[in-house]
Amino acid sequence: MLKGILNYSHYLLALSTQNGETVIDATCGNGNDTLFLSKKVGKEGHVLAFDIQDQAIKNAKALVEGHNCSNISFIHDSHVNVSEYLSSESKVGAAIFNLGYLPKSDKTIITQGESTISSIKSILGFLRQNGLIVIVVYHGHKGGKKEKEMILSYVMNLDQKKYHVLRYDFINQKNNPPFLLAIQKK
Ligand code: SAM
Fold this sequence. Notes:
This protein has 186 residues and is α/β, with parallel strands linked by helices.
């Protein structure tokens, strides 16, 4: 009955995403969330999928091949620059961040608190009413604890008059299990 963290992230994205709208995969990695979002927003929608690693973009392109996903723009750039890829009138329905490193790859190339927060701030400026940002926080790796603490401190201080902020967490799991944060614009 209780969904695991990744299933719950897709459950929330499915609830919040509307057909035909623009959504963001801020850390596309192997492309699992990109593919999921592409199917959710449909042909008229648009997925912006960011990653700083060429290998990740290649893996993600290979994953979506054959799925008829012409609505995806793969962007080999940091999510910090997200506003450069949106127009000032753009509205974003949902975004997802999967923090940490590309699975089975270089564990030193990780998301960083400063850039993750800067990107979240940018996306909040484009988020439509009831739009959602989902952040899956992996923090067991080197550098993960620092990013976790920075992000928690940022989201816990978001104005409750403007945003609902949820933490979804399995509190009896050992070895730094990931947890989920979701920010919904009121
Ligand atoms: N959601 C992905 C999937 O389905 O495979 C997994 C993402 S993985 C945990 C994190 C990814 O974030 C890595 O591929 C890494 O290269 C990327 N990344 C790290 N810093 C980034 C940044 N500043 N902008 C965009 N992507 C970044």
